Amino acid sequence: MADDDDFVVTPWEVSGDVDYDKLVERFGTSKVDEELIKRIVGHTGDLHPMLRRGIFYSHRDMNWILDAYEKGPGFVLYTGRGPSGHTHLGHLMPWVFTKYLQDKFGVELYFQLTDDEKFMFDLNMEPEDTKNFAYENALDIIALGFEKSKTKIFLDTEYAKTMYNIAIKVAKRVTFSTTKAVFGFTNSTNIGSIWFTSMQAATAFLPTELKGEKTPCLIPCAIDQDPHFRVARDVAPTIGYYKPALIHCKMLPSLAGSDKMSASLPSSAIYTIDSPKEIDKKIGNAFTGGRVSVEEQKEKGGEPDICAVYQYLYYFFDWDDKALEDRRQKCLSGELLCGHCKQDLTALVTNYISQHQEKREKARDVLEEYMLRD
Ligand code: TRP
User: Fold this and answer.
1) Residues with CB under 6 A from ligand 1
2) Which domain range does residue 65 map to?
C-alpha cells in the first residue's frame, strides 16, 4: 500500500514526512477535540499552549481518566525515557506537559528510565553507559520541578525485582507474532528486544501493585511510543488491570529539517548540557525556509512551514499567538530574514538552557529522594 509507505513511525524508527492526522487513523487513536479541551480546562483553569497549538493532539480514553478524577478513584501519571544519551529539547517537551498535569491535578507521577531497553537495542552501548545516562537524564527530569513527594523515578535494571514480577504477567500474553506485527521485529531480532515491551507495559500496572487497588493510569508521551501501549491495553484486562489511557504529542522536528531529532546526529538537536557557543552554532546552521539569496527572499518571501527555526518557536518558545503570526506574515512577505529569526531563537534557547542548567545542578543534591527502590 503506497499510501502507508510514505512515512514510518515506530518506537525505534521515525522516517519520512510524518502525517500526524494519518497517524491517528493508522494507530486508531482519537483526536483531542474542542470538547475534550474544554473538559480539561474545566479542571486546570488554564489552557496549556501545547493543547492550544495542537502539539498534544491525540489520545486514548482521556474521558475515562477525567471520569475517574471527578468521581473516583482518581488517577496517576506515567511517562519515561530511554537513556541512550543526554536529554534534548524534544525529550523535555512531553515532560513539561506532564509537569503541568501533575500540578493541576495534584497526582503522582511514575517515571521509568529504560536503561535495559537502550542497552539491548544499541550494539554500541554497555550497561554502565545506559545506567550513567539514566542518572544524567534524571537530573533533567528533577530540574523541571516535579513535586518531590509525588514523583517516583526508577531504572529498569535497578527496580528489577518489582518490575520483573509484573512484566512476566505481560510477557506470557504477548506472542512473537504480535511483536513482529506491532514493532516490525524479525527472526534475527535479539530476544531481549522482543521481551522489552513487557517492561514498558509493566509500569502502567505498577501503581496498582504498589497501592493494592486498581488504579487508572494516564501516559503523556510522544506518539511514537503508542505501539507499546496498544500491546499493554490488549493484555491489561486479561491480567486484572485497567487499560492505560494516553495523551500523545507530535515530535519536535530536527534542526536539520527532518522529522524527529536524532540522538545519533548531535548537531540536529539542542541538548540540556550544551554551552551558549554550541547553541549559537547549532541554530546558526539550522535548516530554514529561506531562499538562496537575500534578493530572492525579499522578492518571494520565506517558507515558515518547512523552517526548523520557526518550528522551534512554534513548539517550544513563542507562546504568544499574535507575535508568532506576525513573524510568520513578515517571513512570508520577505520582510523578515533568516538571520533575524535565528538570533531571536538563539536568545530564547540560551536563556532557557542556562536557567535549566542551574536547576539541573541543584537536582544532584535531591536526586536520591526521587528514586524508587526495592
Ligand atoms: N521507550 C521510551 C524511549 O525510548 C522510554 C519510555 C518508557 C517511555 N516508558 C515510557 C516513554 C512511557 C513515554 C512513556 O524513550
Assistant:
1) 11, 79-82, 112, 114, 117, 200, 203, 219, 221, 225
2) 19-251
